[in-house]
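Quick start: read one record
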Amino acid sequence: MSLIIQSVLGYGILVLIPFLHRTVEPDPTGRRFSLLWMAAGAGALSLFFTVQSHFGIFFAVLWLLWCIGNSITKFLKFLIWGQDHFGVFLNFIASVLLVGGSIWLLSTRFSFPFLGFGEPWKTLTAVHFHFSGFLLVSVFAVYRDKVRNCSSILESKIYIAFNCFYLFGFVLVAIGLTGLRTIELWGTSVLFCSALVNLYLLLKSVWKDSLIYDQAVILCIGVSGFISFSLALMYSWRIFPTLNVHWMILTHGILNAFLLLPLLFYLTDRQKIRFPVRKFSFSKIRSNGKIESDFFHSYLSEENQKEGLTDDFSEFRREDFDPDLIHPSVRNFYESTNKYELNVKVAPNRFFRFTWKFLVKPFFAKLQQLNLPDKDKKILGTINSISCEKDGRPSPRGWMRVDAETGKPIYAAAYSMHKTDRTTYMNIAFPLPYFNMTSVLHIEYSDRPSGIQLTTIHTLHPLGDQGVYLVFAGLGVRLPLDETIEVWFDQGLKARHKMWFLGWHYLTLDYTMDLKHK
């Protein structure tokens, strides 16, 4: 029986995990997959050396190191996407479970108990972490966007909730295996219910647009999943005394390993379901300390002087956004920003007014950057053409905004645009010491007639690039900040800038934009 368990675990590591990775995370160069295949080969091979064998321990350590590296990579992807993408977060949790599984695998290479467990429980726990943990949770993670796009809002929220329940049940089962029978029973029940709900919503999301062949595969997955999860529940509750651990391995284990999971991976490959990839350039500009009004002079380009935040507002055109429907004054502001001065009225949250004045403002005021207005004032701005080579993005330009009364900088921002999947985003970098803070804005129609809204919020476009990032050495980490800027014409050109931190609305700035007096 031990040989069967080891063979199932080795098969999962050597075959299923590489197949899943190649399916959901395409690798054009093949380098990452080659590294995975070598590490998986080492992990699987380690199982077939005798206990205490130096070779077995060495190969198991290689697999553990790859799993740790994989988890770090998934964590960095989670930082890039931030709190807005549950699927990427769930994929990171799956990678952590794989690290746990690789630690349990390493424990099987030693003869002494691990956390009080001997064989076959060490190997069975490693199987549990690799299969029920990493593999199944990874599948649930990659289908998150498919469920969101093809299901109702309620079903989408249920999918998130039951994935959380599944992880909770997984933890309960792990605790219950230490001998706490009641916790094990509850954990298995939560796992059973949540796995079935997740599997149903997952399969439902691909059923409608699938061919008859794929629908037959979906039905096989549904039936095998129900049988497999039911067997696990019956074993846990000891409904049939004859269903002991050996029968559990030969039924639930074999069914999961050789039918349910391979069919799920095959369906995922057929449906071309992938994890989202976020690829766009951040500005290389950063400050060395205090921002002066001539900050952008060292980055100037020899090209013609830019006049606006964009050369042509029509660059934002896409299927669901027509720039021709936007008021001409709004378009002119973005194409000829140099011609305008701004007057701002401030409406901060009361608590923010206090914390900003006494705790935060002294730092940003000293930097003369991101120095949010705390009282009504006039702001003057100047556009400068910036070198593409020094900035690292296409057609950048700097917008220096200064207090008209004192002449001191308030904001220094380097503007550019990038395009992802036929959507053009405004890409704005605020230089900071050693870093920059970049706001990527998605443009859409405003609720106000002929107006626009630029936003970092993901509600309407959940897979977009928008967000606020802290950028260091080219790596952007998504911050829990959001902003929305509305621009419209109503007896004059106006704008409203709202800002949030962790969903808390802390500041509103109302602008009027007037042509500069010559």
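The CA atoms of residues 231 and 415 lie 58 Å apart.
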